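#structure-requests
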Amino acid sequence: MEIKDPMSELLSSLEHIVLTREVIQSAPPLKGEVLMPEPKRIREITGLEIDEFALAMGVSVSSVKSWEAKRTRPSRSAQKLMQLIQSNPCLSRELLA
């Protein structure tokens, strides 16, 4: 029976975890899966202030701040709306009218 060095085993396990995480994060989205839109980037593209963006999205300012700080994730419907706004930035102004 082969005796393995515990430190070597630990380092090997950590290396496996890191490499697996990198592969998962760099993998393209699965069919039907959509990448999460970046609220701050979308808001900046539209030129809206946080309060205007929140109004267009139908959520509170604190929700938008939380999304931008990555403390919480937008709901699926909010993500879809952001995808629409990302593909057509003028839509955000229309939602404010």
